[in-house]
Structure formats: structure tokens, C-alpha cells
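Sequence in, structure out. First:
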Amino acid sequence: QVQLVESGGGLVQAGGSLRLSCAASGRTVSSYAMGWYRQAPGKQRELVATITGGKSTNYADSVKGRFTISRDNAKNTVYLQMNSLKPEDTAVYYCAAGLAPAYWGQGTQVTVSS
């Protein structure tokens, strides 16, 4: 089993930055594909960014050029650096691991005020 704990969410003004962290425990996730997803009120959960075990990355069009996903395998942690935040980025952000994905964190709230 893999447990995922997100942190780093909060309230920020438009144009600001936040860095989310996802700490994994239970087993090493260095070979797992990892992803960040988000769900805004009244909307479906959507993919934000993914990173493979080989550190290849993929981003939703809405965040390209503003968000960066990275991983530190020594710390068993994945990050999401979010810059130039917009009010439409407001959502609960979830970390996920594995195919499907198989494991999910509890989420962290990000609120961007205009």
C-alpha cells in the first residue's frame, strides 16, 4: 500500500505562487508514475500534471508554462510548483500514484483570490 499526504495549499492572490508537496510512505514510489489532479466546486476532477519514473512530464493545456511537476526520489516526494496563479486555479488538489491511478491523497485546498 502507498499512503500519500499533500501539503502546501492555501490562499494566495492572483499572480502569486504556491508549491504543493506530496509525501509518499508505505513503499518507494520512484518507479511509479505520479500525478496531480484538481477538482473545483461543481466540476469533475481533472488532470493537472504527470511525471513518470523516468521524469518525463505532461501538463494540462490550462497550466502549461505556469506549473511545474517534479520529484525527489530520495525523499519519496512529488512537487507541484504553481506560478502566475489565476482564480480559475482554485480547487482541491490531489496527488495520485500508479496506473489508473491506484492511490490517492486526501487533497489540499488552493484558493486564488482576484
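Second:
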Amino acid sequence: QVQVVESGGGLVQPGGSLRLSCTVSGSTFRRSNIRWFRQAPGKEHEFVARINWTGDITAYTDSVKGRFTISRDDAKNMVYLDLTSLKPEDTAVYYCDLNGLWGQGTRVTVSS
């Protein structure tokens, strides 16, 4: 059974950094594009970033370009989202999406 588990969230001050991890169990990982979404309090889910299955094509929503970086390690069945220069508006629960399968999310709170 394929499972997706996000981790790495926490409380960070504005301007700080975090690394989010998405661990995928199951054999579908290596041929799958992966996306990160987030949901801020009281808002809809928002696309954040995606990476293709070969890892050489990435895309980001405009509000995080230049600050967030998505990457993958197929040997570990993991996808990472490096968050830098964090802003209070980045506060949200972040989810990893594998072909429509999501985990429970990991909460990021940016506050002084």
C-alpha cells in the first residue's frame, strides 16, 4: 500500500528556514511527478511546487519563487521542500501529493 508522510514543519521566525520532507512508500514513487500544496488557516489549498519524475523539471507558484526549492532523492523515496526567507504568509499546513494521494501534512508557522 502506498503511503505519503510529510515531516519537518515547525515554528520559525520570519526570515528563517525549514526543510520539509515527504517520504513515500511503495514502488510508484520513481515514475511519479510530485507536488507540494499548502493550506493556510481559513483558505483553500494552494499549489506550491512540483518536480517531475526525472527531477530535472520544477515549477513554483509565484509567491515562493526564489525562496523555496523542491528536490527529490529516488534512492530514499523522498522529496524535499527547502523553505528559506520565510514570511508570516507562508504559515500553513504543507502537503505532499503523489498522484492524488496526500499525507496528513506538516504544519509550518512563521511568527516572531
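Remark: The longest strand covers residues 18-25.
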